[in-house]
Design goal:
The protein has 2 domains: about 5-100; about 115-200, no CATH class. By secondary structure, it is mainly α. About 75% of the residues lie in helices and about 0% in strands.
Length: about 200
């Protein structure tokens, strides 16, 4: 193999080392609290960098096989720092992923979401709908934009908002629905009753 080939291999190895450095900067940003990436982003970074060690090993082996005796010791010294950096950063990210996907982490995340939704509850106010057909479309639009599509609210909370916003005939339409299970059924019954009346 010619010296030109060795130089190209060294450049290719340099590219792999640069990718590892970029990966390390990402890890440092997490450790320092500069970023708080979501689980998908973290998993993608992990998957994209897990094969760096194999790419490095393949090129490093070729360099060591074809470099001169005088250069061999210098080339051997490339291995240890790369491997240490690789395994240190990859193990951190693997542990980070494990902690974020553990049952405890998921439970804590749900608790935070519930706390946030409870914090938001008093700030949401809806007009009352008593069954007057000419008020239905406006009520439906407001309810869907503030409550039905609100990802911070669970079905029990959505049902409670719906129940509190109804009076008279409209409230009787959803009678029999249970707040713990039947928000979707209650909202569907309401829509079927008043959409049908308005649009026919």
């Amino acid at each position: 193999m010619t010296s030109v080939d060795i130089k190209q291999l060294i450049r290719n190895r340099g590219s792999i080392k640069k990718r590892l450095t970029t990966f390390e900067k990402y890890i440092v940003s997490i450790k320092d609290g500069l970023i708080s990436p979501d689980s998908i982003d973290v998993q993608l970074r992990y998957d994209n960098n897990i094969n760096l060690i194999h790419e490095f090993e393949n090129i490093q082996k070729l360099i060591e096989e074809h470099c001169t005796e005088e250069e061999l010791k210098i080339q051997f010294e490339e291995r240890e720092p790369f491997e240490n950096k690789y395994y240190s950063n990859l193990s951190f990210l693997k542990d980070y992923i494990s902690k974020r996907t553990s049952p405890t982490a998921i439970e804590n995340s749900s608790s935070i979401k519930d706390s946030l939704s409870n914090f938001l509850l008093p700030k949401i106010k809806l007009p009352v709908f008593n069954g007057e057909y000419d008020q239905w479309l406006e009520f439906k639009k407001n309810f869907m934009s503030t409550i039905d599509s609100n990802t911070y609210l669970n079905d029990i909370q959505k049902y409670n908002f719906l129940n509190a916003a109804l009076e008279g005939y409209a409230k009787r339409v959803i009678s029999g629905c249970d707040e713990s299970q039947d928000y979707q059924r209650a909202w569907q019954k309401l829509c079927e009753k008043f959409d049908k009346t308005v649009f026919t």
